[in-house]
Design goal:
With about 250 residues, the protein is of the alpha/beta class. The protein has a single domain (about 5-250), classed as Aldolase class I (TIM Barrel), CATH 3.20.20.70. The protein has 11 helices and 8 strands. The chain has an 8-stranded parallel β-barrel, surrounded by 5 helices. The longest helix has 18 residues, at about 15-35.
Length: about 250
């Protein structure tokens, strides 16, 4: 039985003090509500230590939004996995569409980060998804297949237990447009089938696949009702308790 996994990607928002205050409020609310899904938040690098401290003793997972594909060295502005672990982070989001689009991260670069993160004992949320042009051009399956096959290259069957895949249709991120629950479930079903072809039916069956793309309180129940949707990677709606709490308590 796959356990629901709701994640909040704060992107470049909230200072360390703002993030710590909000994280403490969220931890208290999660406890009071008796939330039974996995909850993760991903602050900016500089806010990680304060947020880790704020949620200490709670089940909330603190993740990083990215990391370098090197362990150390002359890589100005980069953050190594050991630095993240020392700050209390054991989960990292990799391959987000904004990293691909704005910073030129290729499938191969993302794969090198996935392999390094796993080798360092970290859990990975691997993001995949198509642009509007790719979707309208009938290339959805081609794009997802490539991103998954290259992104997971040399990942062992054993390490797949530490991989979560987040499907984020690029055209639905920050636009207010949202894939229908049926669209999301169809893409998730294809992702699961692709993973089954690479590994096994059991690994695919146990794989957690999140949906990301303008997730909000008004559509979370319909999305989570679908067979292949196991959670959500939430952007803007994860930045306040008023918007995020209804999402993580969707089944209450």
């Amino acid at each position: 039985m796959r356990k629901a996994y709701i994640a909040g990607n704060w992107k470049m928002n909230l200072t360390p003090s703002e993030g710590a205050r909000y994280a403490a409020e969220l931890a208290a609310a999660v406890k009071e509500a008796g939330v039974d899904c996995r909850v993760m938040i991903a602050p900016a690098f500089v806010a990680i230590p304060a947020v880790v401290e704020a949620v200490k003793g709670s089940p909330i997972i603190v993740a990083a939004q990215n990391m370098a594909n090197h362990t150390s060295g002359a890589y100005t502005g980069e953050v190594a996995p050991a630095m993240l672990k020392d700050a209390g982070v054991k989960t990292v989001i990799l391959g987000h569409s904004e990293r691909r689009q704005y910073y030129g991260e290729t499938d191969e670069i993302i794969n090198s980060k996935v392999i390094l993160a796993l080798s360092e004992g970290m859990d990975v949320v691997l993001c995949v998804g198509e642009t509007l042009d790719e979707r309208q051009g009938g290339r959805l399956e081609e794009v997802l297949s490539r991103q998954i096959k290259v992104g997971l290259k040399d990942v062992s069957a054993e390490d797949m237990a530490r991989i979560t895949i987040a499907y984020e249709p690029v055209w639905a991120i920050g636009t207010g447009m949202t894939a229908t629950p049926e669209d999301a479930d169809g893409a998730h079903s294809f992702i699961r089938a692709t993973v089954a072809s690479l590994y096994s039916d059991d690994i695919a069956k146990n794989l957690i696949i999140q949906y990301g793309g303008s997730v909000k309180a008004g559509n979370i129940k319909a999305l989570m009702a679908k067979e292949n949707v196991d959670g959500a990677l939430v952007g803007g709606a994860s930045l306040s308790l008023e918007q995020f709490l209804p999402i993580i308590t969707y089944n209450k």
